[in-house]
């Protein structure tokens, strides 16, 4: 009755002879205005901002936060996202479904809620069809509810708890859910499934350290391994050669990819799964552990339109995280950033990513040549492995591109001799190179249980002597070395009795200024580079690590493990 009445009312306002199509178009427009009015009214009642579809901007990549099915069920979707910040649009923001969704997303950052009309929401949903398929399709997925993760977090004896689920009474899929849930609960980066003659050991890498957590009965080995291989699109029948695959974990509104690698062993197939948690690379420069002095140097170099910035250190030292933070800082809608990776692990919003394929001849060198034909402003090369890649990267940085890459050297001063080993001319290195960032990762002390111990005089003397040589460039050095206590790890429920929780970087920077350029022209050895850089403000990896000890962020044991003996 309502629609007929509206039709009649509107029809009567038109002169005789107007078609029903025109009348209906007017009714449709009138109905749309009514919906927008209702949405504005609801926004005012709930004290929330109103979002008008006609003027709103939608970030297509933000739609990846949750699948379309979930968005339709909850009557809400994420239309924009930044680092740890999410914007949600919904016509029913006060519904239980939306409130549950907000709780889930708040675990990963700040949430802003906007009210849209029903028709506006439907228009937003149409954009799911435009999500680019930039990654290889994932054939398998595992859904893990929060109850699994929370239950694992609450366990005093995780070994006994997990092993109680490893019986024939439990479904294989359920067993795998519990195995993965502990990885999520502990923020593990990797899960190792390692067959032995009598059992299968589960080890988790947490903050860089492998911990044996539980054992699977030998009779369940094939079931679990086959389940992982099936999810990962790995051939079940091939057991004598290495294979690689991927699957995804769905947790509430979020999806995390798992990279899987198998390798044959004497007691069965070894499997390593990497948790590709996007929050791992969601850090900004201010969250890496950089001293203010070093952070300002990096920010200064990121403002330059061209040049080469290198992150150096061993595998697992956090180089990629640091360069991703730099990429996110410089990538805007006004420039084009392209990466060349091996493999692509994390999706970067607003950045075009490509992956090498050595078997097909798509190497870092050939890929870099191809990228230069794509009119980029910013280039990220996963690693400089050979002379050819080094030469092309140098050329790119000299022809108006800002280039980021990594190199395996022990410290910052060893970088230039390493580039000279690639037969790069010193004058090219001097002109192309802007900044070298050497780094390591140390575990952070759990602040719930870190134990204060006396800062004994012999250790204080050693540390003071190390820092004294770099004193002009260390803020508040006198105050730091006068401290009477330092901290060491102890262990509590909050950190799983490990004594540590999370990791932080220690850094050594070499800024290639005019004086350093002159030095490079003479093909200097590592010692000359080190002496000159120290005189210009570089503090060593060891010094930065010891500063973090004096600040109570880490302990001597971690410094010696990551950087070397304190002597």
Give an overview of the whole structure.
The chain is of the alpha/beta class. It folds into 3 domains: 2-130, Type II secretion system, protein E, N-terminal domain (GMP Synthetase, Chain A, domain 3); 141-276, Beta-Lactamase; 280-562, P-loop containing nucleotide triphosphate hydrolases (Rossmann fold). 38% of the residues lie in helices and 23% in strands. The chain has 21 helices and 19 strands. It has helices at residues 2-11, 20-46, 68-74, 96-106, 118-125, 146-154, 158-163, 172-185, 221-231, 292-302, 319-330, 364-372, 387-398, 415-421, 426-432, 457-468, 477-481, 514-521, 526-535, 541-550, 556-562, and strands at 77-82, 85-90, 110-115, 141-143, 190-195, 199-206, 209-217, 243-251, 254-265, 268-276, 307-312, 337-341, 352-355, 378-381, 402-407, 433-445, 451-454, 485-488, 500-511. Strands 4-8-9-10-5-6-7 form a 7-stranded mixed sheet. A 7-stranded mixed sheet has the order 13-12-14-15-11-16-19, with helices on both faces. Strands 1-2-3 form a 3-stranded mixed sheet. Strand 6 and strand 7 form a beta hairpin. It is globular and about 75 Å long. Residues 1-10, 21-27 and 133-139 have low confidence and may be disordered.
